[in-house]
């Protein structure tokens, strides 16, 4: 392969909103057979909105108090879910109280003290610390939300479950077409997420992906890529988050959403400037064509 021909390939990539770090990247791009896709912010828009707040015990918890304490806690978190909760709480309640002893556990949730109450918000697993379980009515509401592809987080304070909050994200309109294009190129798509399995399967079905790995902790994403590689697969990974960076670096080809975090972009070989997943198919098609002409 002559360097000049490869550079032409990368130049054409730039026209498509695909920035390739160096000509050597095209070689690994050509051999990729499996593409792992992060869900939130990659397949979905990552623009989350709070769509429901369900207080525990049919009114035993006040809805405004649920939003106030959860919103105050999430105000201190940068997670897209957290921002959706904080924004909605502020809109409904006004100024939110401050948080003391704030703690964030990546891929799990947050905890802290708000107005003298010890509050936790996150995955259902956050209840384990207090040996709590989700009451049946909230478990039903959570399951229904997840079947609809929405994320539900649980809220507890002072040793009792107080409610669930339901957050909706939209699938990017271009995602189904992008998945179809990747398949046409012979790639096997895999959806990877820290979110609940029911949510992940709902999103996967909507965009045409069959293989799903859900409820993965941030540090486990890299292990999923390694496991696929040890099956002999050549793996591309597409992601946008800080928690995707290690997996993007481990993949044979790392592809970052230009709309995502700097950590993801730095760990990747290719950046899709507009955050359009179809750019991944463009990059692979382009590298095959470029290397085809110089062979
Ligand atoms: P993804 O892989 O989809 O980007 P994450 O790994 O960031 O998801 O988070 C996985 C799950 O952990 C979320 O679906 C949510 O249940 C929980 N979680 C993480 N951070 C928070 C937070 N700040 N507030 C509430 N829940 C959270
Ligand atoms: Mg993401």
UniProtKB/TrEMBL annotation:
Protein family membership: Belongs to the cation transport ATPase (P-type) (TC 3.A.3) family. Type IB subfamily.
Gene: copA
Protein name per the record: Cation-transporting P-type ATPase B
Subcellular location: Cell membrane
Shown chain mapped onto the complete sequence: 405 to 699 of 753
Organism annotation: Microbacterium terrae
């Amino acid at each position: 392969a002559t360097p000049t021909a490869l550079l032409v390939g990368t130049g054409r990539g730039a026209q498509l909103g695909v920035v390739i770090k160096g000509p050597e990247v095209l070689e690994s791009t050509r051999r990729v057979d499996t593409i792992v896709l992060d869900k939130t912010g990659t397949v979905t828009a990552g623009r989350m909105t709070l769509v429901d707040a369900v207080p525990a015990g049919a009114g035993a918890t006040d809805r405004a108090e649920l939003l106030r304490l959860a919103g105050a806690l999430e105000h201190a978190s940068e997670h897209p879910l957290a921002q959706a909760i904080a924004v909605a709480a502020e809109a409904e309640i006004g100024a939110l109280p401050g948080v003391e002893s704030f703690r964030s556990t990546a891929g799990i949730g947050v905890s802290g003290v708000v107005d003298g109450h010890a509050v936790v918000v996150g995955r259902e697993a956050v209840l384990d610390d207090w040996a709590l379980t989700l009451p049946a009515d909230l478990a039903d509401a959570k399951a229904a939300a997840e079947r609809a592809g929405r994320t539900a987080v649980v809220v507890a304070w002072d040793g009792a479950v107080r409610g669930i909050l339901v957050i909706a994200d939209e699938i990017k309109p271009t995602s189904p077409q992008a998945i179809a294009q990747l398949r046409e190129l012979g790639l096997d798509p895999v959806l990877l997420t820290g979110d609940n399995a029911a949510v992940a399967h709902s999103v996967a079905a909507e965009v045409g992906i069959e293989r799903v790995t859900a409820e993965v902790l941030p540090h486990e994403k890299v292990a999923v890529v390694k496991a696929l590689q040890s099956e002999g697969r050549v793996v591309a990974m597409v992601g946008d988050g800080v928690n995707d960076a290690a997996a993007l670096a481990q993949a044979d080809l790392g592809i970052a959403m230009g709309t995502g975090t700097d950590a993801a972009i730095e760990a990747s070989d290719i950046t899709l400037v507009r955050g359009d997943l179809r750019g991944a198919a463009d990059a692979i098609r382009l590298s095959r064509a470029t290397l085809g002409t110089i062979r």
